[in-house]
Amino acid sequence: MKLDAPVTGGPCWAELGTTDLEAAQRFYTRLFGWRPERDPRQEAGGYTVAHLGDAAVAALAPLYQPSQPVAWNVSFAVTDADGTARAVTEAGGTVLLGPMDVFDVGRFAVAADPAGAVFQLWQAGTFPGAGLFNVPGSLGWVELYTRDPDQAVAFYARVFGWTVAPSDRYTQWGVGGADFGGMVTMDAKFPPEVPAHWLPYFAVADVDATTAVVQRLGDVLMVPTSVPDGPRIAVLRDPQGAMFGVYRAGDEG
Prior knowledge:
globular, 8-stranded mixed beta sheet, 16 strands, about 45% strand, alpha+beta
């Protein structure tokens, strides 16, 4: 992505909700070289922040509700979580949780767009979001999968003011023209039970080597592929079932 730090409207954080926190820590530490640090406060519920060096890059957490799926969640930075939550409902989306304060680190909400793709809002307090982007082991791209691209463009442009760079092949999202993600239209290749969703991509030094590790421990949903005029990518699934993408660092637009 063309963003290298959290900016208003852009992705600022990726957070995994999982059924087996210890196993997820082992998997992602091996895959990305993360150093996990668990919040010791009881009220934090086991929330664990992954670091590269001293920089926070992502989080892993247990599932907090029985209905919560195992999945990676993408957070977008906002200056007013309450106001943005109202904009979500006014644009036809749904607020699923919050807004609520998280200690002194920020205020957040969980929302869904009109097609049901879930995302999070993050109003920074003492924590602005990830300290690194676009380097191996860190977030570098986010992708919306939806069956209604026209509705998605209208919704996200209204809620976040994103710029949209459409094309016949791939629509890209941006903040002030700085692209940070894209949109894939879900066609007949996607089973009907697969919901609309956001997918984070993490940068890696070698997509093929990373995929080989996942083949032994998880699932490969899309084999390493070189996108025409774009990066080399793969889509993977961890042992607990969370999907995520990887791309070769240095290939980002």
